[in-house]
């Protein structure tokens, strides 16, 4: 692809998705049609994420106009980054251009649809800057189709992608070869401490492990290990606990497969502050997170209470029209919690009276909170479960994770095949972003759960339908 200077035309949805998009095109120029400014103005009212972003874009543009001094706005504004804005991307050296001339009425696709006005502005711009490539950047697939029909190059906004291909996402576990012990025989040191076995060895070039990654052997030698520490090329591995048997049950729940065993080990480790569990429906994400939370809240008293929240489909929108308290308003979204609590309380002895007493006790220690009111809060010694995290943008997830105070553990659950938020994809979801960004941190762990454990009917339905 040629690196010659281009003009990128930004659609409204790009700016409302990421206000810093203005400063992310390096040496290229950015063009804003008048219709984009109109749509930003229409979207600025309200308390939703998109409204806040629309207002932020307007503030950025206002600041750029002020910094322009006596320069003519027709010549464009220098895209100098505001001092308050910290971006990892290279400094932008292009200019911000505006549509200063109206497109002739009735010409180029009419004036009814905003998309058609944006297209008209692009075609007029292309005539005015003959020889410079003009590219539309939009998250709206239909507008990109229209642009392609008009022979205008169109791209999706990809700067917020965590990775190019979702299949490359870190899974949290890795199979070891059968020759593993033979290869490390010369540099291997082992010891036992507090009932756990540890191995220290020198990492080879092909062993690109991450902290708290789980390693396993396929076949007869079913040892399962965890990468405990990485210091240069020296690595400490630990044999993990096996929670597949009833004597090691966690609040009555046992692991039914290898990945669930990895997940329980990560959830029960007090040194791990952040756990992400990715998996399709029925892999046990919510059940494992709740069981581990109850065991450490009720039995070990490590956490004061469990806080459960989830991204409602209308993320960030008002839930005031539902009757009752905050907890009662969230109840329609919390079917997963009630279903899993039914499983967990059913394992307790004492008949229906005993189960009711257990339900009342658990209800006093499990709080349901709406995501709308999280800003500004701090959670101390809490076990926080964020369900349906695939529907969160990276910025929304950052808002939630920065609520964690001392002694708090955050667990993010999600299935990226079920994204309901507009303009979010598998590669731009906040959950994908968190998995990729946290994999190098010593106090986080991730597991991708692969096998559904609901029933043979659910397993067959997920494969066949």
Overall description:
The chain is globular and about 80 Å long. α2 packs across α3, α7 runs parallel beside α8 and α8 packs across α10. The mean pLDDT is 84. It has two domains: 150 residues, 3-Layer(aba) Sandwich (Rossmann fold); 299 residues, P-loop containing nucleotide triphosphate hydrolases (Rossmann fold). The longest helix has 19 residues. It has 14 helices and 18 strands. The chain is of the alpha/beta class and 465 residues long. β16, α12 and β17 form a beta-alpha-beta unit. The strands form three sheets. The chain has a six-stranded mixed sheet with strand order 3-4-2-1-5-6. The chain has a six-stranded mixed sheet with strand order 7-10-11-12-9-8, with no helix packed on it.
- Tell me the quaternary state: single chain
CATH superfamily of the largest domain: P-loop containing nucleotide triphosphate hydrolases
> Which structural class best describes the helix and strand composition?
alpha/beta
User: Over the alpha carbons, how many angstroms does the gyration radius reach?
Assistant: 26 Å
CATH architecture of the largest domain: 3-Layer(aba) Sandwich
How many DSSP H or I helices? Answer: 14
What fold name stands as the CATH topology of the largest domain?
Rossmann fold
The top-level CATH class of the largest domain is: Alpha Beta
Q: What does the average pLDDT come to?
A: 84
Please tell me the total number of domains. Answer: 2
**What percent of the residues sit in helical stretches (DSSP H or I)?**
25-40%
Described by strand count, sense and barrel closure, the largest sheet is: 6 strands, mixed
Distance between the termini: 40 Å
Shape type: globular
Taking pLDDT < 50 over at least 5 consecutive residues as the criterion, the unreliable ranges are: none
Strand portion: 15-25%
How many strands in all? 18
Strand order of the largest sheet: 3-4-2-1-5-6
Family: In the N-terminal section; belongs to the PINc/VapC protein family. Belongs to the PhoH family.
GO molecular function: ATP binding
Organism: Pseudomarimonas arenosa
Keywords: ATP-binding, Nucleotide-binding
């Amino acid at each position: 692809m040629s690196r010659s200077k281009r003009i990128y035309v930004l659609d409204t949805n790009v700016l409302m998705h990421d206000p810093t998009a203005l400063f992310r095109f390096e040496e290229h120029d950015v063009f804003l049609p008048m219709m984009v400014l109109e749509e930003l103005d229409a979207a600025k009212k309200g308390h939703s994420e998109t409204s806040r972003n629309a207002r932020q874009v307007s503030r950025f543009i206002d600041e750029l106009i002020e910094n322009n001094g006596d320069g003519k706005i027709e010549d464009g504004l220098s895209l100098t980054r505001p001092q308050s804005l910290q971006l990892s991307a290279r400094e932008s050296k292009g200019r911000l251009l505006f549509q200063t001339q109206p497109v002739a009425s009735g010409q180029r696709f009419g004036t009814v649809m905003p998309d058609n006005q944006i297209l008209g502005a692009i075609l007029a711009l292309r005539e005015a800057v003959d020889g410079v490539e003009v590219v539309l950047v939009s998250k709206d697939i239909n507008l990109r189709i229209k642009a392609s029909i008009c022979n205008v190059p169109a791209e999706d906004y990809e700067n917020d992608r965590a990775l190019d291909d979702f299949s490359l996402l870190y899974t949290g576990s890795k199979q070891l070869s059968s020759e593993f012990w033979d290869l490390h025989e010369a540099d291997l040191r082992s010891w036992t401490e507090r009932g756990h076995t540890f191995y220290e060895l020198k990492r080879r070039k092909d062993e690109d492990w991450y902290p708290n990654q789980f390693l396993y052997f396929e076949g007869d030698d079913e040892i399962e290990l965890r990468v405990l520490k990485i210091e240069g090329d020296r690595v400490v591995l630990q044999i993990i606990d096996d929670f597949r048997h009833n004597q090691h049950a966690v609040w009555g729940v046992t692991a039914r497969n290898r990945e669930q065993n990895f997940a329980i080990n990560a959830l029960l480790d007090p040194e791990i502050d952040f756990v992400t569990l990715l998996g399709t429906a029925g892999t046990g994400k919510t059940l494992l997170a709740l069981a581990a939370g109850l065991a450490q809240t009720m039995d070990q008293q490590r956490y004061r209470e469990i806080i459960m929240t989830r991204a409602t489909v209308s993320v960030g929108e008002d839930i005031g029209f539902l009757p009752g308290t905050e907890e009662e308003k969230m109840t329609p979204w919390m079917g997963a919690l009630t279903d899993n609590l039914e499983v967990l309380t059913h394992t307790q002895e004492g008949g229906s009276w005993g189960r009711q007493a257990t339900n009342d006790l658990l209800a006093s220690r499990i709080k349901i909170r709406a995501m709308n009111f999280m800003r500004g809060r701090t959670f101390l010694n809490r076990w926080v479960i964020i369900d349906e995290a695939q529907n969160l943008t990276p910025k929304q997830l950052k808002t939630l994770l920065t609520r964690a105070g001392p002694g708090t553990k955050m667990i993010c659950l999600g299935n990226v095949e079920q994204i309901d938020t507009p303009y979010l994809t598998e590669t731009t979801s906040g959950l994908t972003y968190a998995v990729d960004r946290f994999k190098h941190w010593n106090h986080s762990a991730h597991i991708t759960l692969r096998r559904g454990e609901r029933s043979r009917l659910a397993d067959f339905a997920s494969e066949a339908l």
